[in-house]
Amino acid sequence: MKNFSTGGVVLLAATLFSGVAAAQAPQPACTFRADAPDQHQVAPGDTLWDISARFLDKPWCWPRVWGMNRAEIANPHWIYPGQIVYFDRAAGRLRLANQLAPATDVPGTVRLSPRVRTEGLGKDAVRSIPPGAIEPFLTQPLIVEADELKNAPRIIATPENHVFIGKDDKAYVRGNLNGGTSFQVFRPGKPLIDPETKAVVATEAFYLGTLKLLREAAPGSDVHTFVVASAKEEMGVGDQLMQMPPTPMQHYVPHPPEGKIAARVLAIYNGVTHAGQNQVVSINRGKLDGLDIGAVLQLYHKGQTVKDPGASKGWHNLGNPQVKLPDEEVGSLFIFRVFRHVSYGLIMQVTEPVVVGDVARTPE
């Protein structure tokens, strides 16, 4: 395959995103890496992010170099080990192939024939990001939004007044089950405070295990009988229940948010003060703010406000002695679970540790 120059290859959203409303905020330009390879054969253990990073300066540009619209971003984009991703430099696109076919127009060369595999459930397809880093956060309610706690069923008693119960023990639960039979058990932890509004937007929850319904409450009673199906931690009276969530989608296409997002880091999992690559943080923006699964945000250390000693002396005619320093970019955040007001993100490509209060916003 010929080795073409990648310099100056810029992809504009207006030409590559079909069907995007004209009123939508303009998308930042995407560029291929100067050292982008001609092709990459997908190997076991590859992720969509890794493959994107081989070709692109910004891995979240993946949908644009495939010419994907918003509807296609929401659907799984199956790519399998053994297939070949190749760089069509003339078109400024990436293409997918899993077989070589003889070229008909250039003697002595071969051309990759695109053939996207979409059948099946994608069990063996490469993941977008390392699955092990986010597995607990896909199914466990480690963040609970405030109004979800109001009417949550709760354990009110245990057999023989045991302080704690474990696997196969019974638990007596009071509350509206809303037709559910399988529940997760959690214990509310510390409230999460929005760094901007200072309001409580969610509560950290300690995941304890799962309960399965044995007997619904008899007529005239509102106490249900459950059995502990699994126990990560001991559970007891006062612990609360949430219905088991549906099996989450684990294949996401990395992409910038559709609109402008300006968020702050709420918390770092495990209560540590600093987070690095492949660690999970929560931010104070969610579905109601326009975030969706697979959205990528840029992370910044928030610029401090400092005093300019020269301003009081009239230097530069600036007057105001207080000045805010620029925010400094430190990495990327891949959103993989979205609630109404809060989201989980996996830190990608970080250059400095991320701290609570850092800024996360739409890529520029």
Q: How would you describe this protein?
A:
Helices cover 8% and strands 35% of the residues. It is mostly beta strands and 364 residues long. It has three domains: 10-126, no CATH class; 142-243, no CATH class; 262-361, Elongation Factor Tu (Ef-tu), domain 3 (Beta Barrel), CATH 2.40.30. The strands form six sheets. Strands 7, 8, 9, 10, 11, 12 and 13 form a seven-stranded antiparallel sheet that branches. Strands 14-16-21-20-17-23 form a six-stranded antiparallel barrel. The chain has a four-stranded antiparallel sheet with strand order 3-4-5-6, covered by helices on one side. Residues 1-25 and 99-121 have low confidence and may be disordered. Residues 1-23 form the signal peptide. This is LysM domain-containing protein. Residues 38-87 form the LysM domain. It holds the Pfam family LysM.
Topology readout:
Blueprint: E1 10-11, H1 13-16, E2 30-31, E3 39-41, H2 48-55, H3 62-65, H4 70-73, E4 84-88, E5 93-102, E6 110-114, H5 131-139, E7 143-145, E8 154-157, E9 170-174, E10 182-193, E11 200-215, E12 223-231, E13 240-243, E14 262-268, E15 274-275, E16 280-283, E17 296-301, E18 305-307, E19 322-324, E20 328-338, E21 343-348, E22 354-355, E23 359-361
Antiparallel strand pairs: 1-2, 3-4, 4-5, 5-6, 7-11, 8-9, 9-12, 10-11, 10-13, 11-12, 14-16, 14-23, 15-22, 16-21, 17-20, 17-23, 18-19, 20-21
Domain LysM: 38-87
Pfam family, one: LysM
Signal peptide: 1-23
